[in-house]
Amino acid sequence: MPNYFALLPAAGYGSRMGQHTPKQYLTLAGKPMIYHAIRAFFQSTHIKRIIVVLSPQDPEWAKHDWQTFSEKLTVLYCGGETRADSVFNGLNTAAEQCAIDADDWILVHDAARPLLTQQALNQLIETLIDDSVGGLLAVPVADTLKRGSPDARVIQTESREQLWQAQTPQMFRRAMLLKALRMVEKSNITDDASAIEAMGHHPKLVHCIDDNFKVTYPQDLALAELILHNRNKP
Ligand code: CTP
Ligand code: MG
Predict the structure, then answer these.
(1) 83, 186, 194: which to mutate for ligand 1, most atoms within 8 A of CB?
(2) Of the bound ligands, which one is closest to the alpha carbon of residue 84?
(3) DSSP string covering 35-97
(4) Domain containing residue 108
(5) CA nearest 36: which of 8, 15, 14?
(6) 43, 172, 187, 192 - which has most CB atoms within 10 Å?
(7) Using CA atoms, how far apart are residues 44 and 140, in angstroms rounded to an integer?
(8) How many other CB atoms are found less than 10 A from the CB of residue 149?
(9) For residue range 15-61, what is the model confidence (pLDDT) as tens digits?
(10) Count of domains in the chain?
(11) DSSP bridge pairs for 145
């Protein structure tokens, strides 16, 4: 039976958030944002180990207390220039250090997605358990889509039929993911599925019904705070 490992790239700087502290460490419901992402995997009985990939120059991790998660947590200071570099470096290092087999499942999850629920995580794992490729949480596009010119004039309205917004976790087997990331031009992709697609595979889109957006801009932080607060109400 394959094991399940979570891999959290957390080596970004959050430039669109516009704060001095990298966004994964900004306080959300009293904890650093990444705490919530780690907790979702810590609470899941499916997940054997959580691997956090930090920048070699990470200024923040050591300032916080991660004792609660220690029995399942591995921290690697091997993040790279792009998200794909961080995932690739982390997976390469962890494959040996954490004894990850070729057909074990890797669930790559953005440190900046603090809203992942057990329901969504279980849905992803249960949908893909026998899948030959793997897949990702995603939501069908809800808004009307416009293609714009460089001066922000509408060129045309695009059909949103069959368009999905990719989220994380994105779940692939270790060997396939490493091979895909080794082959792809890492600066051209912003998720793991893109690398798998470049090898000619078709990852499964698993409809995520709970809020699971990525905190990117300052206003996202306030909304995430509100959602966590409402979920924790008795
Ligand atoms: N990430 C990473 N290594 C990088 C860039 C990003 O591990 N070189 C991580 C981020 O820390 C985040 C996830 O990938 O958890 C998703 O990336 P994104 O939301 O783009 O975060 P940032 O790159 O930090 O933000 P921005 O693009 O606004 O600078
Ligand atoms: Mg980025």
Answers:
(1) 83
(2) 1
(3) HHHHHHHHT-TTEEEEEEEE-TT-SSGGGS--GGGGGGEEEE----SSHHHHHHHHHHHHHHH
(4) 4-231
(5) 8
(6) 192
(7) 26
(8) 8
(9) 999 999 999 999 999 999 999 999 999 999 999 999 999 999 999 99
(10) 1
(11) 158
Average pLDDT (183-209) is: 96
Choose among 89, 74, 36: nearest CA to 215.
Answer: 36
| Residue 21 belongs to domain with CATH number | 3.90.550.10
Residue 232 scores a pLDDT above 90: no
Q: Does residue 120 surpass a pLDDT of 90? A: yes
Query: Atom 10 (ligand 1): residue with closest C-alpha?
Result: 12
**Where is pLDDT greater, at 96 or 176?**
176
Q: How far is CA 214 from the centre of its chain?
A: 9
Ligand 1 atom 25: residue of nearest CA: 14
Token look-up 């895909």 returns 180
